[in-house]
Amino acid sequence: MTLMKCDVCDSPTATSLHFGAKSCKACAAFFRRTVAQNSTFKCITGENKCKIHYEKRMNCKACRYVKCIKKNMKRNKVKSQMKHKPARQSTSSSSMEPPSPVEQNNIQDEQEQIDVVNVKMYNEDEAINSASLMQYPNAGGMLEYQEVALDCNTESPQTSEEYYSDNNCGIIPTFEVIEESAIEGELRQHLKCESALNRRRKISYNCTSVKDLFDNNYCIVPFEKSQLTEFDYKTFQGFHNFEYSMHYDYACSFPGYDELSSAGKNMVYRYCLGVDIVMNSAYYTSLLGYEDGVFVSSDGKTTRMVPLPITGEEPGAAQYFQSNEEFQRYRTLICPKIRMWKYVIEPFCQLQVTFEEFVVLKALTIWQFCNYSPEIFPNRGINLALRMLDEPSRRVYDYHRNVLFACLHK
Q: How far apart are CA 390 and CA 396, in angstroms?
């Protein structure tokens, strides 16, 4: 069988003409479904100039269809899959007759459709970014799905949402076992990342001798009780540049970070920053302040929480402040700490987690947020279209998230 390059997506797996153009089976299935269902699409960028390539799983449907037409695919050559074919008579004479050209085309189309259905979910365009799969050999364990009880007439879906929302398909995902070496390597790397972040905090917030920075043990907590200072909402000026730099280095040291796209790296960095502020405050408080009823933030500042300070919502609360500006500043800075104490820190401290458990839980939270943020926060300015195009990054998210799940079971 001679392989050719697909005119639509450049896949090297085209074997024949489909609807008038050299194309792979995935592009042929896409064109057939679009015409049969009379679907219309809108360009996800609005420029109608999207690149269509087999290595990009989430290609723009509008631009893909336009390219099919430009490459001479003919709509009139598509036979509607919606129409039921008349049952054949099972007579001996009819069974001996060779099929007509029309019947041969129908049989070929049906066979192509069956082939497309059997394509892996992540392999719609019949090729995946090979570099990503070589980097993550067990990504197939997260992304490869065994087809069970398959009874449907749909082709390979275009998105994971379509894949799971198709009521006509019964697909049960099954995950491969992750190798022990991958689990241990992931855990070891995250322990190093967290320890390095704590050492950076030691340098930034404390008077630390140089010899303490090169201890071979993991740095579990960057502060001692004697080094903690009280938080003053009146003088707080926000985060400093070195804190953003510190979190940037932390994000860059994440396993798989170099394999992410620019948008994927941006997202990991933002969630590293947000998750670190919350979870490290909870962890430091559990070690240094919870027994004394003191909230310890990630920068070593303390706020007494037993008894709980006023929230500012109480009647007449403003009278305890010298000005309305001071009152509003208090509410802005202290109220979030009170909520964090009640809903995050108290439950977290009751878990009494070890350093290893904390590190895994924190990293897992970051990867989980990265993977599901468009669905959880649809109105928070996250570009869903961009995320759906960024499938290599999603594979990285999936892989490391599932390895960390395995770490929790060790």
A: 10
Q: Where are the domains of the chain?
A: 1-81+111-175, 180-408
Q: Please give the radius of gyration of the chain, using alpha carbons only, rounded to the nearest integer.
A: 29
> What average pLDDT does range 147-170 have in this prediction?
37
| Side chain identity, residue 31 | F
Alpha carbons 194 and 363: distance in angstroms, whole number: 9
Q: Of 392, 397, 399, whose CA–CA distance to 131 is shortest?
A: 392
What's the rounded Cα separation, in Å, for the pair 50 and 59? Answer: 8
Q: Which two tokens stand for residue 139?
A: 């990504």
Structure tokens at 261: 């796209």
DSSP strand pairing (229-230 vs 301-304): parallel
**Model confidence at 249, in pLDDT bands (50, 70, 90)?**
very high
Phi, psi (degrees; rounded to nearest 5) at 2 = -85, 130
Band the pLDDT of 261: cuts 50, 70, 90.
Answer: confident
Mean pLDDT of the chain: 74
The answer to whether the CB of 166 falls within 8 A of the CB of 155 is no
CA angle (343, 362, 368) in 5-degree steps: 90
CATH class of the domain whose range is 1-81+111-175: alpha beta
Residue 362: partners with Cβ closer than 8 Å, 6 or more residues away = 194, 275, 276, 279, 280
pLDDT (0 to 100) of residue 151: 34
The domain made up of 180-408 has a fold known as Retinoid X Receptor (1.10.565)
pTM for this prediction = 0.55
Q: What is the pLDDT of residues 44-83, one digit of tens each?
A: 788 888 888 887 756 788 899 999 999 889 888 887 544 4
Where is 77: in which H helix or E strand?
A: none
Do the two domains 1-81+111-175 and 180-408 of this chain adopt the same fold? Answer: no
Q: Got the DSSP string for 92-128?
A: HHHHHSPPPHHHHHHHHHHHHHHHHHTS-GGGTTS--
Give the residue-averaged pLDDT of 223-246.
Answer: 88
Structure-block tokens of residue 365: 């939270």
Burial class (CB in 10 A: 0-12, 13-18, 19+), 260: buried
DSSP state of 256: T
Alpha carbon dihedral 14, 15, 16, 22, in 10-degree steps, equals 20
Alpha carbon of residue 39 to chain centroid: 28
In this structure, what token pair is assigned to residue 316? 């007449």
